[in-house]
């Protein structure tokens, strides 16, 4: 079922930026089959390459991969994390996240391990994961497996977990416990750059869009409500008097009404999680009333799932 969100970036005709980036990676890897075997792959980024004047390696290394497993893992991460980020942020921000994350990871690696040449889009793919965890912190990554796994893994846990593991693996590599050909610093730098960029986007736009896996579950509508008129009306209501005391009783404090985004996050999301995991028969009358209120709030939507 297709539903448009009023604050989503307007679709651009033609292939998406993410598709072009993935096709470039596949095409460059296919060209490597015709290149002679050398110790440093053509297009790799290193200080030696820059000293030779090969400035173009700042771009070519992103699309150069060592083997099919290296290429396939990066393409999978770009697809899973990049697709919802592109949907939420738009194609220009997708390019910025891709390049800035790749360059931030390369810069960190060049500073701390200058002798190692760099190839691959690992920094960019980890950057999309960082941006996703910042844009959709409450998304449950295990929701597609809810029939078999009852646990929850929120996207906000991805950033600290992956950053910590990348730094630990780098320490093991420096100590000689693990092979030193894996660019863990590139992963850490790209992850931090993407997360920071996603945090900036999240503060500018509170809307949420499809999830991490294909066939993302739902979108939330965040339409502003003018609460000033409501508060003004409540302020002019006469306070109830306590007849047992000569002093008028103060008016009870009225909690501020929830915005649409707050209502979805605090009220509707827990009910939907229970609905998906346990079924409609286990919903309480109060939970059913919450779903009915959600249907009244969003009359133009064709459903919340």
Describe the structure.
- The chain is elongated and about 70 Å long.
- It has helices spanning about 15-30, 45-50, 55-60, 70-90, 90-110, 120-135, 160-175, 185-205, 225-235, 260-280, 285-295.
- It is mainly α.
- α10 (about 260-280) packs across α11.
- The protein has two domains: about 15-205, Rhomboid-like (Rhomboid-like fold, Up-down Bundle); about 220-230 and about 255-305, no CATH class.
Question: Tags for this entry?
Answer:
53% helix; elongated; 305 residues; disordered C terminus; mainly alpha; Rhomboid-like fold
Quick one: overall form?
elongated
Q: What's the total number of strands?
A: 0
Binned, the helix content reads 40-55%
Q: Which architecture of the largest domain per CATH?
A: Up-down Bundle
Task: Look at the helices and sheets and give the structural class.
Answer: mainly alpha
- Major sheet details: none
Work out the radius of gyration. 25 Å
End-to-end gap? 10 Å
Oligomeric state, counting identical vs distinct chains: single chain
Q: What's the helix count?
A: 11
How many distinct folded domains? 2
Give start-end ranges of low-pLDDT stretches: 1-13, 207-227, 229-237, 301-305
- Per CATH, the superfamily of the largest domain is Rhomboid-like
CATH topology of the largest domain: Rhomboid-like fold
List SSEs in N-to-C order: HHHHHHHHHHH
Q: On the 0-100 scale, what is the average pLDDT?
A: 76
Q: Give the percentage of residues in beta strands.
A: under 5%
């Amino acid at each position: 079922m297709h539903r448009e969100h009023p604050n989503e970036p307007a679709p651009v005709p033609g292939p998406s930026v993410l598709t072009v980036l993935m096709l470039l990676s596949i095409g460059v890897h296919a060209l490597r089959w015709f290149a002679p075997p050398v110790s440093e792959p053509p297009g790799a980024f290193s200080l030696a390459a820059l000293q030779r004047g090969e400035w173009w390696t700042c771009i070519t290394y992103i699309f150069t991969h060592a083997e099919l497993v290296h290429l396939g893992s990066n393409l999978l991460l770009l697809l899973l994390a990049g697709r919802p980020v592109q949907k939420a942020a738009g194609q220009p921000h997708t390019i910025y996240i891709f390049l800035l994350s790749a360059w931030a990871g390369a810069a960190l690696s060049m500073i701390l391990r200058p002798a190692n040449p760099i190839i691959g889009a690992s920094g960019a793919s980890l950057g999309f994961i960082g941006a996703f965890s910042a844009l959709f912190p409450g998304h449950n990554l295990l929701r597609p497996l809810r029939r078999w796994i009852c646990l929850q893994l929120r996207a906000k846990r991805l950033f600290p977990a992956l950053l910590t593991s990348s730094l630990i693996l780098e320490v093991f590599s420096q100590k000689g416990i693990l092979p030193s050909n894996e660019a863990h610093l590139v992963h850490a730098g790209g992850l931090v750059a993407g997360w920071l960029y996603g945090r900036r986007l999240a503060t500018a736009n509170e809307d949420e869009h499809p999830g991490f896996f294909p066939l993302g579950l739902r979108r939330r509508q965040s339409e502003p409500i003018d609460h000033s008129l409501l508060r003004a009306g409540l302020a002019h209501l006469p306070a109830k008097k306590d007849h047992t005391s000569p002093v008028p009783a103060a008016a009870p404090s009225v909690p501020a009404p929830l915005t649409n985004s707050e209502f979805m996050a605090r009220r509707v999301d827990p009910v939907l999680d229970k609905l998906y995991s346990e079924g409609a028969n286990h919903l309480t009358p109060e939970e059913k009333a919450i779903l009915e209120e959600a249907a009244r709030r969003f009359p133009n939507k064709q459903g919340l799932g």
